[in-house]
Amino acid sequence: MVSGNAGRVSHEERKRRTREALTYAARGLFIAQGYGATTTDAIAKAAGVSRATFYLHFRSKAEIVLEQMRKAEPDILSDYRALATVPLEQGALKDWLLGHAETWRRYRIEFSAIAQAMAAESSVADEWFESYGHIVAELPELVARLVESGLEPRRANARLTALAMTIDRAFYFGIIGERPEFLATIIEEIAATMVFGLGSPLTIQ
């Protein structure tokens, strides 16, 4: 005999499906019309739920972007952990950058929405900025190398933060902005800069 509960969907499963539907709908709208033009009402309608249901899951559309950012972060941090083992050679660093670019391509839509949201939502901008601290925390070997070469710890952290910011900006314009020739050239230049920047204590006075 089949149980009377067969085929029923649990409350938690319904919540999960609704949340996924809202996230998927928001993602599609961010692509089609941009973050700024997308309203919570439009997201709810595209997901087939009420506005009230939207607010049961998210307080704002910015929260959807923050959730997307948090889902991408483990892969970003994994890439940077691998950087600590890469030889300070331009070819090896270029290969690392190309691999990291693939991670960016995988999250291209999410990163595009994040970039748009940062201009309007301080919570998104603040969390993106905090993510650089998470990146540096994954690179104790590189911090130690720079300190051993004569750089103050504060400057070592700042140099790695600047590197991550530089890569983000380059990948934003090259990948999100669909400029493949620029991306190929800038990866070569960043790799060359990394050879020097990750191994030298030189600072601007």
Automatic annotation (TrEMBL):
HTH tetR-type domain ranges (all copies): 16-76
Domain of life: Bacteria
Keywords in alphabetical order: DNA-binding, Transcription, Transcription regulation
Molecular functions (GO terms): DNA-binding transcription factor activity; transcription cis-regulatory region binding
Record InterPro entries: DNA-bd_HTH_TetR-type_CS (IPR023772), Homeodomain-like_sf (IPR009057), HTH-type_TetR-like_transc_reg (IPR050109), HTH_TetR (IPR001647), Tet_transcr_reg_TetR-rel_C_sf (IPR036271)
Record feature DNA-binding region, as residue ranges: 39-58
UniProt-recorded name of the protein: TetR/AcrR family transcriptional regulator
